[in-house]
Amino acid sequence: MHFLRRLVFLPLLLLVISFLAFLFVRLAPGGPFDRDRAPASPEIKRHLDAKFHLDEPLGRQYWRYLADLARGDFGPSLKYRNHSVNDIIKQGLPVSMTLGALAFGFALGVGIPLGFATAVRRGEWPDHVGSLLALLAVCVPGFIIGPLLVMALAVQWRVFPVALWGSPLHAVLPTVALGLYFAGRIARLMREGMSHTLAEPFITTARAKGLSHTAVLLKHAFRLAVLPVVSYAGPLLADLLTGSFVVENLFQIPGIGVFMVNSSLNRDYTMVVGLVLLYAALLLVLNLVVDLSYSFLDPRVKYE
Amino acid sequence: MSCAAHACGAFVSARRALLSARGLVQSLLAALTLAVVPTGCTSSALRADLVIINGAEPESLDPAIATGQADLRIITALFEGLTRYDPRTGDPIPGLAERWDYSPDGRTYLFHLRTNALWSTGEPISAEDFVYSWRRVLDPATAAEYAGLLFYVKNAEDFNTGKIKDPTQVGVHAVDARTLKVELAGPTAFFLNLCAIHTYAVVPRDYIERYGDRWLMERPSKVSGPYRLEAWRLNDKVRLRRNPRYWDPARPKTERVDLLPITSPATALNLYETGAADIIWDKNLIPSELIDILRQRPDCHTFDYLGTYFFRFNVTRPPFDDVRVRKAFAMAVDKERLVTRITKGGEKVASYYTPIGTANYQPPQGLDHDPPAARRLLAEAGYPEGKGFPPVQYLFNAGTGGGARPDNKIAVELQRMWQEQLGVNVALRQLEWKTYLAAQGRLDYDLCRSSWVADYNDANTFLDMFMGNNGNNRTGWKNARYDQLLRQANQQVDMARRARLLQSAEAILVLEEVPIAPLYFYTGFTFYDPAKVAGIYSNVIDQHPVDAILRMERPPPK
Fold first, then answer.
1. Widest distance between CA atoms in chain A
2. For residues B116 and B248, is the Cβ–Cβ distance under 8 A?
3. Residue A70, CA distances (Å) to A13, A74, B282 in order
């Protein structure tokens, strides 16, 4: 019931978000057609504004936008005038999603085992080494890791391509550059969750009942310990699926991450609103999924 | 505890799968393979014969709409006009027009189109196509930002601003299928240069009328130039393919060309170094920290370029409404130091505004670097040794998208120079690009970093912007004598007389009134290995027609 109610509220929430995005981007100084070279006459600027309805009152512009949105049309891009926002999303989103999913998989695939292992061997040398690695992964930013990886593995030793996108080999360095930070975060979260859970009384009970070490760890402790990771992973996935500016810029990957930042800098009104809506929709859906999974993972959690 | 569900986004695994670590790994692998398979399926992974790093992503490939340099480099390969750029000198040479005549007063041109000029789909290109294309640029419905470049044609400006509603009054008409008559608003010494600009290119009427804004995406692509548009993926590449119906069988020299929109200088250099790209031809892609090292390399080709880096004074408010203060500030700057210590690209110091190498022109001498004279002028204006000087700000923009700009360093250097030489304290004000443009446009600044690059090879492109009502003036400065000199100059057919008039006008600009202070002229950079790439030359307008470029060895299989 709770979830159905949230599903119903989703479109309403998106509507409010669309209006706020629509308003805020227009409040910023400067417009989409401001350039270093002013056009030869002010009429030219007026023609441009008229063509894209920027001279109309805000309310009418927003209504027009909603009417297009109802047909699934996010509108033309104001900067890339031969493309519509739909084109750009259609071209770029699958690429960003691929990279995001790979980085997500990498972050989970490296982070969870690392966190698990360091928690189980708490206080011993694997814990020290593992925790240090996780800390390094969190502290060194992506725009340092990326170029370092490129320098070492693409320029010095030509193992991987330097940039661009096209074959599975192209995906390796960007995945690592993007996923490493989150792997570190997840490792630390996992370690915390695992340590906390292992100290719970029910674990002592399980051991007292004679369950094997692995059964205790994997069957009982893990599903509770992974909860912090699950709450972190939901929004993380939304973030990763919509692309990363730094990594996509560095490796020249044709995703939408670059557009998410540049559209604001370019005052590309339609693109900003379209991408904000996309990101918000993903985030809201994934948060819902996370909350759903909570109710499966932990029966103490109940929703009205 | 009950069983669990996986929070891995789109791939929701079965409850039981999550209970075991093995299940986790399996579901991850499934996700990975599913993700990688579409990645590997792109056929565009095959390297083209020639790969050029072009700089920014083109905003549009429509000749009537595009304004950026990255855009027009691709457009001139797809759509040709009456003239085109000579690859060596950048001068206008016959394009789709094989010859032309013009009247003695310079106001009427008659262009004779080639008999073998065909669209890529096979139809002949006619003079009517040109009439349509130029009218389309001027049509208010097209909202072409560069319509102003066609204002030299009779009645063009009035049609664009709406004073005239009838497009047939614009001074371009088809005498017959192969002859185009153009009437100009006045004698225009650089008209043939203008005809090579992408805005003047011929576009396919039937495609535009049938497909509207998506006409470029239609296949087979209908173009008038040496290349067809094969693929265009944003932030990935533009792929060009030879147009077999182009009028010159000797061109283009390369079958397939990729143009990459790289904005990060490090990535550009890495791609070039590893052989993934053959040419880098955007000077913004040279990391400023490495300029002096990179310049030594044999594959780095530098050349004088028609662009000026300068700063504007806001003459509408004190203290810069006083010409003595302006001159003092201009003369206190050590431009030699700027180009040798800060930009380090071999730029030439500028005391006047129109760059070295501009055709048919001798610029006047401007103000020298003369700190004692500057101090004297400042004292005369009422601020001896800078005492009592009001707080002022130097406005400049933040770099966009990873480009390596020395703007910050230059700003700091200027601040220091004015402090040391004049004793005045200038604050630095850095704004994000669009905010900076908005502030400059409404004259909300004291000093403002600026630059200008030539649209065509003539002094007019640098000087007409400071006429009183020109939208690119942005200093608040108006001078009736300057405007009159420019108008007179552009009525001249005698080139020598014209040059003298322009020179007198520029002398007002850089010597007498000084609403701007030029700092240096840009240096162009192109990276290519002359042993591997031929047909690309350095010229002052930085035009390198793609159809002349040839890669001389087979690229390694990728």
1. 86
2. no
3. 15, 9, 42
pLDDT at B45: 56
Amino acid (1-letter code) at residue A216: V
Quickly count: other Cβ atoms within 10 Å of residue B483's Cβ. Answer: 17
pLDDT of residue A120: 85
- Count how many residues are written for chain B: 558
Residue B337 contacts by C-beta under 8 Å, 6 or more apart in sequence?
Answer: B413
User: Measured between CB atoms, which of A162, A171, A254 is closest to B271?
Assistant: A162
Q: Which amino acid, B321?
A: D
> Which residue did the predictor score with more confidence, B516 or B557?
B516
Which residue on chain A is closest to B19 by alpha carbon? A219
**CB atoms closer than 10 angstroms to residue B46:** 11
As a whole number of angstroms, the distance between CA B151 and CA B470 comes to 13
**DSSP secondary structure code for residue B45 in this structure:** G
Cα B465 from Cα B452, distance rounded (Å): 10
What residue ranges define each of the domains in chain B, with the CATH number in brackets? 78-212 (3.90.76.10), 306-523 (3.10.105.10)
**Rg (alpha carbons) of chain B, rounded to whole number:** 27
Closest partner CB to B274 (pick from A35, A91, A158): A158
When the pLDDT of each residue in chain B is averaged and rounded to a whole number, the result is 88
Answer whether B45 sits within 8 Å of A31, measured CB to CB.
no
Burial B109-125 (b: 16+ CB within 10 A, else e): bebbbbeebbbbeeeeb
In the three-class reduction of DSSP (H, G, I as helix; E, B as strand; rest coil), residue A100 is classed as helix
**Using CB atoms, which residue from B9, B60, B471 is nearest to A40?**
B471
The pTM score is 0.87
Q: What is the pLDDT of residues B294-353, one digit of tens each?
A: 999 999 999 999 999 999 999 999 999 999 999 999 999 999 999 999 888 889 999 999
**Looking at the DSSP assignment, which residues form a beta bridge with residue B312?**
B448, B516
Confidence category of residue A122, pLDDT binned at 50, 70, 90:
confident
Reply yes or no on whether the pLDDT at B36 is more than 80.
Answer: no
Q: Give buried/exposed letters for B370-396 (b at 16+ CB in 10 A, else e).
A: bbeebbebbbebebeebeebeebebbb
Query: Per-residue DSSP letters for B61-120?
Result: --TTT--SHHHHHHHHHH---SEEE-TTT--EEESSEEEEEE-TTS-EEEEEE-TT-B-T
Q: Peptide bond before A228: cis, by omega within 30 degrees of 0?
A: no
Q: Which amino acid is at B221?
A: S
Please name the member of A109, A219, A252 whose beta carbon is closest to the beta carbon of B267: A252
A187 touches chain B (CB under 8 A): no
Cα diameter, chain B: 96
- Secondary element (H or E) of residue B372: helix B371-380
pLDDT of residue B8: 40
Contact assessment for residue A272 and residue A264, using Cβ atoms and an 8 Å cutoff: yes
Gap between the Cα atoms of A263 and A76, Å rounded? 13
Kind and range of the H or E run holding B449: strand B447-453
Are the C-beta atoms of residues B339 and B349 closer than 8 Å to each other? Answer: yes
What distance in Å separates residue A139's CA from the closest CA in chain B? Answer: 22
Q: What tokens were used for B33?
A: 């393979």
Cβ distance of B39 and A98 shorter than 8 Å: yes
pLDDT band at B152 (very low <50, low <70, confident <90, very high): very high
Q: Above 60 in pLDDT, residue A184?
A: yes
CB contact under 8 Å between A164 and B260, yes or no, is yes
> Percent of chain A, pLDDT > 70?
99
Q: Helices A2-27 and A269-297 sit at what angle, rounded to 10 degrees?
A: 150
pLDDT of residue A43: 87
Residue of chain A whose Cα is closest to the Cα of B34: A98
Place of tokens 């960007």: A174
Ordered DSSP codes for B508-521: IIIIII-SEEEEEE
Structure tokens at B315: 């003459």
Residue from B32, B43, B238 whose CB has the most chain A CBs within 10 Å, to mutate: B32
